[in-house]
Amino acid sequence: MRYIILLTWALFCLAPVLWFLSIGFRPRTEIITPQPIYFPTFSLDAWQMIWHDWPMASYLRNSVLAIIGSVVIDLVLAIPAAYSLARYSYRGRDDIGFYILSTRMMAPAIVAIPIFFLFRNLGLLDTVWALMLVFAAVNLSLVTWIIRSYMLDLPHEIEDAARTDGASDLSILVLIIIPVCAPGIITASVIAAIFAINEFFFTLLIASTQNSYTLSVALANFTGGSDGIIYNAIALVAFLAFAPVFLLVLAIQHHLSRGLTMGAVKG
Amino acid sequence: MAQITLKSVSKSWAAVTAVHNVDLRIEDEEFMVFLGPSGCGKTTTMRMIAGLTELSSGEIWIDDELVNDIDPRDRDVAMVFQSYALYPNMTVYENIRFPLRMRGVKRRQQAALVQKAADMVELGDYLHRKPGALSGGQRQRAALARAIVRHPRAFLMDEPLSNLDAKLRSSMRVQLKRVQKQLKITTVYVTHDQVEAMTLADRIVIMNHGEIQQIGTPDEIYNNPQNTFVAGFIGSPPMNLLSGRIENGHFIAAGIHVDLTPATAADTSDITLGIRPEDLGVVKTHSPHITGQLYGIEPTGDVTFLSVKTDDSIIEVKADRDFRQALDSDIAIQLDTTRLYFFDPHTGLRIQS
Predict the structure, then answer these.
(1) Which residue does chain B place closest to A167, by CA atoms?
(2) In-domain check, residue A86
(3) Can you give the pTM of this predicted structure?
(4) Is A155 among the domain residues?
(5) Residue B242 exposed, middle or buried by CB count within 10 Å (0-12, 13-18, 19+)
(6) Residue A97 lies inside a defined structural domain of this protein
(7) How many domains is chain A partitioned into structurally?
(8) What is the ipTM of this complex?
């Protein structure tokens, strides 16, 4: 009985994915016909089109570079920040922590114009670098807070032991805290990557050519122009954007569930 | 190998004073135990020696060096924690090696030193395991090996055995004492367990409310308590403390009448008499020191604990292993008049006769 329920739920969740895959590999005419089709024709038309007629490779490259770059920037900044917020006591620590979190509460539209001018003045408009920075900025607060809550749960004795064993603050962070917090750090990275791959608003603001178009913005390109809405191409590109994250989450789901519950329940 | 000296050491957080004006000298190679109830400041004092907690005032010296402003990692002391505090991401081998690595010991020497320390605590076969795959006792030994490995100037142990079961605790106690005597390293050991304190210590420091109550060898602490706190804290069950008065060389309280001749205390209307449960015995004479009713009886196998109710107090007595009597029946108690202690009921201090 349990398996029937789980199977039904799995089908319910996977149905849209299977559906847009089936759209992606059928001829365009077949998709928009009003009659139901019981035996669809397999076709690579859309697949060939997105790779030949569109610079799909650059979109994919831009997405991957921007996401990896932004996650790296986030981790480099967030790990020391989280450690400081979790462990050191200084004036205004909690206010600083809240300030960092509050940047997440802002509606993106409020900062859209300043960001546009900022990157224009820096000469970074329409570059992957700008995307990395923007994605990193958007996700930094969340990454910091996830890692911080994970660090808060570590027992102080481990650091006290390391300190009497002769370790400097930096060695403690690198040799002990980061490895022990790995599940939290991985969770935060995956969440940041998912947000980054779905990011649309700021990418549209910054990107204007294939120099910096990412998959999510490229999708929008298939809806206009003289060809109308190209459903099968949209389905394929959407699948390309979805699949890597899906596989990544599958691969690390053990860490992910541990990381997400860690902050909530004292072990 | 070091002498540790504390001079007027105090620690307070805002309104709370955790440690007040502690003066103490721990001799080289000595096994010193800090004993007291929870919240008495013993752990805070140890953390100040380790450098993990800053002093509010006073000085701490290790040998001829004032260490107040010296970082924990430069004090060359090793600490063993109640929670073991092993590094969960490293194997036992890497855990024990960690202090050597941090101190820049040559790689070639590391393996031999780690092996030697692990053998000393009989953990040689578990070096490749992660702490998560060890039992409580093995984790504790791994933590001990990590402290041993670098031959520090002093060991600081914070209730290292309190998470172990009773049987393991007593065997670890023996092992700990052997290791300390072999290595001849000055050791400060914090515990609230008086059996650990009595069995391990060269000297015991008894603390309460952040102040030292008494410093002495286990025998001195047991046989010569300086105040009612020490008297009531040490011993299982602890010393009986009876309030009463002294008239014409007789101690008198409800249901209690003791002839003190030859007089050991001057007449007074207000005094506390201390007597240990093992210095009391059940008798069948007509004029016993104490008369009362049997309130409770607890046979433990080798000895039977009695609670005897007098008019206004309950007195603990250690009786023979085969002593049996009905509850609430009358009982007569004689005490060993050579083993009496008198305390000032207001200050709690011992009145020496």
Answers:
(1) B102
(2) yes
(3) 0.81
(4) yes
(5) buried
(6) yes
(7) 1
(8) 0.82
Close Cβ partners of B153 (under 8 Å, ≥ 6 residues apart): B1, B2, B62, B63, B75, B76, B77, B185, B186
Spell out which chain A residues touch chain B, with contact meaning CB-CB distance below 8 angstroms: 155, 157-158, 160-168, 171, 175-176, 179-180, 182
Label residue A258 by pLDDT band (50, 70, 90).
low
Taking alpha carbons only, the member of A243, A262, A263, A242 closest to residue A254 is: A262
Q: State how far residue A257 is from chain B, nearest Cα, in angstroms.
A: 19
Structural Rg of chain B based on CA atoms: 24
Distance CA B105, CA B111 (A): 10
Minimal CA–CA distance to B252: which of B209, B300, B290? B290
Contact across the interface for B89 and A157, Cβ inside 8 Å: no
B contacts of A162 (beta carbons < 8 Å): 87, 98, 102
Of A157, A171, A182, the CB nearest to B81: A157
Each residue's pLDDT tens digit, A178-204: 998 888 898 899 889 988 988 888 888
Chain A residues touching B82 at Cβ < 8 A: 157
Reading the block at residue A240, the tokens are 């390309």
The CATH number for A96's domain is 1.10.3720.10
* CB nearest B89 (choices: A163, A164, A180): A180
Note whether A164 contacts B89, CB cutoff 8 Å: no
**DSSP secondary structure of A90-104:** -TTHHHHHHHHHHGG
What whole-number distance in Å separates Cα of residue B272 and Cα of residue B341?
A: 8
- pLDDT score for A224: 61
Which chain B residues have any C-beta within 8 angstroms of a chain A C-beta? 47, 50-52, 71-75, 77-79, 81-83, 85-89, 98-99, 102-103, 143, 146, 156
Band of residue B265 on the pLDDT scale cut at 50, 70, 90: low
Can you say whether residue A148 is alpha, beta or left, with left for phi > 0 and alpha for psi between -120 and 50 degrees?
alpha
The whole domain housing A141 covers 54-261
Reported as a single tens digit per residue, the pLDDT across A48-98 is: 888 888 888 888 899 999 999 999 999 999 999 999 999 888 888 889 888
The answer to whether position A26 is within a domain reads: no
